[in-house]
Amino acid sequence: MALVTRTLASATLLLLLLLSSLVFSFASRPVAVQTPPQVETQATCKMNTGKCFDLFQHLMNWSPGKPGTDHHCCTVVSGLSAYEAASCLCYTFRSRFFGMEMNYHAAINTVMNFCGLTIPRYFKCY
């Protein structure tokens, strides 16, 4: 009788261990996280923000005429976050004014304000 009880207790313990390890293995399994697709904003910057340089020239009265608020530059930057838009404008102005000393922050701020955006607080254009 003692042998049967001992065997039954061992089998029960083994079954309990197997079930608990099975439950804990499913509970601690890593969760698959879907990452959003990367958007190529740099390509958009290179192709479309040349119009922002033209807008900046208009705003500084370097070119005749006044731009409208539906300017192509505003259309380009409106689809971006404020930081992405500021980065794109920084890239554009740095490439157009290559080697010239200029207050890029003021230029970016001028264009972004015209388009209804606010430059991010700690943004720096290097």
TrEMBL record:
Keywords, in A-Z order: Signal
Annotated SUPFAM superfamilies: Bifunctional inhibitor/lipid-transfer protein/seed storage 2S albumin
Hydrophobic seed protein domain sequence ranges: 47-125
Organism: Sesamum alatum
Protein name: Hydrophobic seed protein domain-containing protein
Signal peptide range: 1-27
Domain of life, source organism: Eukaryota
